[in-house]
Design goal:
This protein is of the alpha/beta class and 222 residues long. Helix content is 51%, strand content 16%. The longest helix is centred in the last third of the chain and has 22 residues.
């Protein structure tokens, strides 16, 4: 087994740190004091969607939680703890749920949904994790779609569903119900791997009903 990829990362880190210090000598000293990002990014673990790079952000700009297929399960203590900490301790004002085209997790769920008899139920950590998305795929009418169209439809539906889940979570409902709390807005975005651009599908806040998300998504397709 080659350790070259690890050594490459360590060398690149050293070069990066030296470059930052050269441009902004006190950057790391200020960074060590604390963080005050205004954005929480909940995205996919896919290596092709690094949030800081595709948004030209710096360390400290974005609080991050990533997992396979950008899921937000209402029973997932990891995601809920991140959201709680982001809102109540850090004071983020914007929560973005970000999916992307050609998502491997979504592809797996499309395949699993084709023949329920051949996929009787969750049996591994990954299939258990993706089982809600597989159920969502089965609820969609993909019969008239090509393979690529079906996958894009699943990715978009998944983004909308996870935004719905975020909006139902205790940290968000509590923040929206408290007139004295800092207002938080939730967004659903899709990143296009082939273009390198983000498309906004849905926006939700305390004053906007769920129907707004459908209208936003429809406008984004025009």
């Amino acid at each position: 087994m080659s350790h070259k990829p690890i050594r490459t990362l360590l060398n690149a880190n050293e070069e990066w740190a030296q470059s930052v210090i050269k441009d902004t000598p006190d950057f790391f000293a200020r960074s060590a004091i604390g963080q005050k990002p205004k954005i929480l990014w909940i995205g996919c673990s896919d290596s092709r969607v690094p949030e800081s790079i595709i948004t030209a952000s710096k360390p400290g700009d974005i609080f991050v939680h990533r997992n396979v297929a950008n899921q937000f399960h209402l029973h997932d203590d990891s995601a809920l703890s991140v959201l709680t900490f982001a809102i109540k301790e850090i004071g983020v004002e914007h929560v973005v749920l970000v999916g992307h085209t050609n998502c491997g997790g979504a592809m797996a769920c499309v395949e699993a949904a084709k023949d329920p008899a051949a996929n009787p139920g969750p049996s591994t950590p990954l299939t258990r994790w993706l089982s809600p998305l597989t159920a969502l795929v089965r609820s969609l009418d993909l019969s008239a779609c090509s393979a690529s169209e079906a996958l894009n439809k699943v990715v978009e539906a998944n983004i909308i569903k996870q935004v719905d889940n975020i909006c139902k979570s205790e940290p968000i409902t509590t923040a929206w119900a408290d007139p004295d709390a800092k207002k938080v807005t939730v967004y659903g975005w899709m990143y296009d791997l082939a273009e390198g651009r983000i498309k906004e599908l849905v926006v939700r806040d305390a004053s906007r009903s769920s129907s707004f998300g459908t209208l936003k998504r429809a406008k984004a397709r025009l």
